[in-house]
Amino acid sequence: MNDAERLDRLDRFVKRMNEVERDLTSPYVRPKDAATLILIDRSGREPKVLLGKRHQRHKFMPGKFVFPGGRVDRTDLFMPVARPLNPRAEAQLLKRVQRPSAAKARGFALAAIRETFEETGLLLGTRGSDIGKIPDGPWTAFGEAKILPDLGLVHFIGRAITPPGRPRRFDARFFTMDATAIAHRVEGVTGPDAELVELVWMPLAQAQQLDMPAVTGVMLEELDARIAEGFGHDLPVPFYQMPRGRFMRELL
């Protein structure tokens, strides 16, 4: 891909974010830290990603296809790991962040892994015998399975803040991990009465045709572009935000 094609593609990403009609009349709320994980299966000819369909009864994005994710929890700061984040990913996570620390960067990545377990039943990491002290709550399932998250396998690929004027706002970090990181699965987590009613593995091009939020589709395209560029930790990370009525894309 030459420079002109690359710039045209980036322009399309920003345009897609700005074309969405949004009600921005709600009172200002501070965005909450959140994390999302894109699991990618690159074992076949075409990379496939895992998406879940949200329940129709949800007030927030009902019926949409999304990646597993949610808010950062305090327990995420204390979960032991098999390996730390790549130094480049850690540095990018701490840009444009209040009170940056290594623990905060690790917490973002761990939140994505925990939320993936809570919404899909998939435990991502490495099995071992000496796993240390596990925080109470959802992380206890990792302790029982003797699995530690391996942050060395995590790639930080994007960040987006919900625009001011929305009733719910998130400062979301988007991560990706290879499907080979799946160490165990708890059955029965998804279904008719769960937050995600179904899970699907789909090639990137087909996945972009699903009914999904604009930011989900854009991050799929960002992932596709990242794969084309070599998928390295040294690549810059896009940051989408709306400071003056229109989305802007900058690089971390």
End-to-end gap? 22 Å
Overall strand count = 13
CATH architecture: Alpha-Beta Complex
The main sheet comes to: 9 strands, mixed
- Oligomeric description of these chains: single chain
Output the CATH topology.
Nucleoside Triphosphate Pyrophosphohydrolase
Number of domains: 1
Kindly name the structural category.
alpha+beta
Low-confidence stretches: none
Write structural notes for this entry.
Helix 1 packs antiparallel against helix 6. The longest helix is centred in the middle third of the chain and has 19 residues, at 102-120. The protein has one domain (3-46, 67-184, 216-251): Nucleoside Triphosphate Pyrophosphohydrolase (Alpha-Beta Complex). The chain is of the alpha+beta class and 252 residues long. The strands form 3 sheets. Strands 1, 2, 3, 4, 8, 9, 11, 12 and 13 form a 9-stranded mixed sheet that branches. A two-stranded antiparallel sheet has the order 5-10. It starts with a helix and ends with a strand. Strand 12 and strand 13 form a beta hairpin. The chain has helices spanning 3-19, 87-93, 102-120, 140-144, 204-207, 214-228; strands at residues 32-41, 48-54, 65-66, 69-71, 122-124, 126-127, 147-148, 155-161, 170-178, 182-185, 196-203, 238-241, 248-251. The chain is built from 6 helices and 13 strands.
